[in-house]
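Good morning N.,

You mentioned wanting to compare the apo and holo forms, so I went ahead and generated the holo version with cytidine-5'-diphosphate. This is what I fed in:
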Amino acid sequence: MKLPKITIAIDGYSSTGKSSFAKLLAKELGLLYLDSGALYRGVTLFAQEAGYIDAENHISEALKEKLASLELKFLQGKLYIGERCVEDEIRSMKVSSQVSPIAAVAYIRHYVDDCLHCLAAEESVIMDGRDIGTTVFPNAQVKIFMTASEEVRVRRRYDELLAKGSNPDFEEVRENLRQRDYIDSHRETSPLSQASDAFVLDNSEMTLKEEVEWAKGLIRGKLGIYEEC
Ligand code: CDP
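and this is what came out, ligand included:
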């Protein structure tokens, strides 16, 4: 399918499979994939390692100044802090347990929004997150809001952590998803919410291939493209 320059925004709850879906769709359509959650996770790892967040989730004001020199970048789809690849560390339970308090801070959201706008300036992109269709790219041509049953989401994240060699506790994973969804939906600055012009994708009982076919149909319809992929 030949596409004009477009932006596709994918938002939704934790562990709804947004990144697997967005990555495959990006590959099939030849678009750049940007994982906004990875940037929030990168800031969290940085804050944890530098001692800017404590066990009670108090965030030091000093982090604000330090963000100016924090160099986050994607190389071949993996997140780097400077020259160090942090892709595995940012997916750990330790980072997951503090990422939502970090992502609720307005100046951190502005920092990440600026990174996203820079990265997406020249190219057609598919971006996933919590506020892409509502705040980061409110004019995105296609918006998808993803959801799935809690049981399916917990199982997915649990299996993912297991496959990466950690030893997760199923109920701890469930609690983390619940807490993140709560904080993400109730924060003051750009909370997780469905854009009024987003299409809902409940993938509780869908395969990844079915999701991508559904999305291609949606994109063709939205852009008025009639040729098959
Ligand atoms: O993979 P999963 O859906 O569990 O999460 P993620 O996309 O890696 O995002 C991690 C966290 O970053 C979320 O729980 C949010 O707190 C935050 N986030 C956000 O606030 N806004 C975004 N656009 C993306 C992520």
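Residues 14-15, 18-19, 36-37, 40-41, 99-100, 103, 129-132, 180, 184 surround cytidine-5'-diphosphate (CB under 6 Å).

Happy to go through it together on a call whenever suits you.

Best,
F.
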